[in-house]
Amino acid sequence: MTQDIAGIDVAKRSLDVCLLLGGEPRRFDNDTQGRKRLIRWLRRQRTRIVGLEPSGGYERAIIKALLAAGFDVRFADARRVRLLAQAHNAPAKTDAIDARFIARFIAETGGRAVRLDAAREALAELMAGRRNLIDVAQRLSQQAQSIDHATARRALARQAQKALTEAKMLEAAALAHVRSHADLAAAARLLMTAPGVGAIVAATLLAEMPELGALSGKQAARLAGLAPYVRESGAWKGRAACGGGRVVPRNLLYLAAMAAKRKCGAERAFFDRMVAAGKPKMVALVALMRKLLTALNAMLRDQTPWIAHAPA
Fold first, then answer.
1. Residue 275: left (phi > 0), alpha (psi -120 to 50), or beta?
2. What are residue 8's phi and psi, to 5 degrees?
3. Crossing angle of helices 78-87/95-109, nearest 10°?
4. pTM for the whole thing?
């Protein structure tokens, strides 16, 4: 993959695009007219593949427009794109430079194909709204606890409770949304056969990791930031570490793994064996998270429920 590739750096109000094979970077507005002009320009350049990074939701409109126009859209991992730029001694971090290295990253790695699913997108928005409201409620509660003035404290506490109530409403709407779509409901039922995976964890995984079930175990672990990166050089061996990946599903997998090792004898035995072998408890827990995610990925891939194993 060495030609017909464009990289786009997405911002709230702008789209910076750079072609792999050269030419001056171009900037378009991130609005309806700007996206139309960008697509016309890409067609004139005979571009076939477009790479971009997830940008907190600002990328959704351009992705929809590009897919509707028939382009092959690929996601690039932002951290790895930045490492690529550093490896090439990029003189600065600008939108145009980012777009150029996004194109190079897609050329060298292939990126990850983007497939839109309206039902999962709606679920992702409901779950994101729920998380945001819970975060607001927690901040308001903490602020209320630090205030001595009773009137101000009660006002903050009321707003915190209101945010929690709204979060519950979005949670109910998200679970109803899952039940109303046969494919989501079937996938959620499969996931919930695993220990520690309840309705919220299942909905979050379906929304935030739509690729689950179409990946290898190692790919799923990397996507969630649970794959250890080994550091070795000659006789020197550094400590392997996990990093990057999607924070939201990783946080939910942490809770699921904690629950699994309490409820499931095999998972508890796995954790205890690692600790007995001298591994720190957090390392053992991350290994359990990775084991659980690999199993969930296989369950969706093979359409089979969780198989409980006796503790070793």
1. alpha
2. -120, 125
3. 100
4. 0.75
